[in-house]
Specification:
Number of helices: 15
Helix content: 55-70%
Number of strands: 2
Largest sheet: 2 strands, antiparallel
Shape: globular
Number of domains: 1
Distance between the termini: 22 Å
Amino acid sequence: MAVLLIVDIVPHSSASTIRSLMSEPTSPATTPQQAAPTRLPARALLLLIMVVILWGGSYPTMKAAALEMPIIFFRGWAAFLPAVVMLTIARAIGHSLRVPRQCWMGVAISGFCTVTLTHTLTNVSTLYMASGQTSLMLYTMPIWAAIISIPVLGERPTRLHWLGVALGFGGIVLLWSQTAQDGVSFGVLIGVVSAIAWACGTIAVKSVSRHLPALVLTGWSFAIGALPLCFYGFTEIDQLGPVSDRALWSALYIMFGANFLGFLTFFYIIGMVPAVVASLSVVAVPGVAFVLGVFILDEIMTAMDGVAFALIAGALATVLPKPSIKRNASGKERHEV
């Protein structure tokens, strides 16, 4: 879950709004003066596969760690340490770490929604259902963002967007039917709240992304969102006992594999391909989470899970922005959304 990813996949029906979201100064592929590549470079394809595997693997590994560690303590430090490394690298490559005064509110809300709430609640959700099912619930975020953007941003969804919402709710109902106990599915409920929190972070970070480099924005959001978790986590230290090698390596994987290497790789990819292409590619993350959950945690993927995945993937295909090709004054093609 990256703040840059949030900005990239926020589903707005207004083409001008999407263009403003994609015009981040640190993403060369999205500047109007530079033509985006018309074909996906082989290196970008390999890196996209790497990101999908890193983020898909985060769901079973976060569950493995949470089974033996206090969740708030674990999630706080799993975000704070990568944040320190991100900000250090940003400073080393010449970025200013200063956040404009008008941006602090957006950065703080983004951090609270996407780290304090989403990271923690997602991990809690994995304790009530399979890690792959949790990943599916989280990736309903663009559907909730589309709904929230109606009253908040005054968006006008198309019929295709409403079809996507219907498909998404169909997938949620299927997951509910498989995981409910006594008529209630706590895993789905927590997953829905987690996805809505991520969607709220999406709306909050909308204007901030134009004023800060992606690495700085993500670093500060992670740091701010992690601080309350780290402070509360000190009260859980007495619950932290000896852990297995699997739990320890899982925690390190979340910190430096998914939360650090995954995000840095994604930032690099954005410079090679249009942001929308990269964002659409990570829709495959839940599929990887299902497969790796089978091997890492001996979870079972059912046929109904496959149907739910198809419904939610179809929903994302309808609500996510689509790139278009336009020609500039010199006749060269460039990609827009």
